[in-house]
Design brief:
It is a single chain. This protein is mainly α. The longest helix is centred in the middle third of the chain and has 25 residues.
């Protein structure tokens, strides 16, 4: 992944995630999990969906309100949502819905020329954030690929 990718390439990476991940996990149970990783295949899909949805909410918020965004703890969210119990079909549905909302929010934010103030990263342009969102999709594809090599635990 290169953080110098264009806005169009970054948006395409995120908007293509449901179809791309769908091909990647075809034939999977979603319960496959690499022993060195925190979540199962379905859990990583849930995380990407949640992160995408949260960023959509952030973009909509800065378009219509203050520039500051709220942080979140991905591990607390995973525990609260019980990632390990969410079926792969449900996580894929969630990813598809999140990406749709994200794309709409990015378009609104782009028209508004937003600058986002992240509590840990400081001032960020929309391009900085969209590149970060694309990186999340690519990075967790790697986690999913690694996890797919391990059979799911016995039921």
């Amino acid at each position: 992944f290169s953080f110098s990718i264009s806005m169009q390439a970054a948006v395409s990476t995120v908007t293509g995630a449901p179809e791309h991940y769908g091909r990647l996990v075809e034939g999977s149970t979603g319960r496959e999990r690499h022993p060195d990783l925190a979540w199962s295949v379905s859990g990583y899909v849930c995380h990407v969906a949640d992160n995408t949805r949260i960023w959509a909410e952030r973009y909509a918020g800065v378009v219509h309100g203050p520039r500051e965004i709220a942080p979140y703890d991905e591990n607390l969210l995973a525990a609260a949502r019980s990632y390990s119990a969410i079926p792969l079909a449900g996580s894929m549905w969630s990813l598809s819905k999140a990406v749709s909302d994200w794309e709409e929010a990015v378009l609104q934010a782009d028209r508004s020329h937003v600058i986002i103030v992240h509590p840990e990263r400081g001032e960020l342009s929309l391009l900085d954030c969209v590149r970060s969102n694309a990186h999340d999709v690519v990075h967790h594809e790697w986690d999913i690929r690694r996890s797919l090599a391990f059979p799911p635990p016995a039921a």
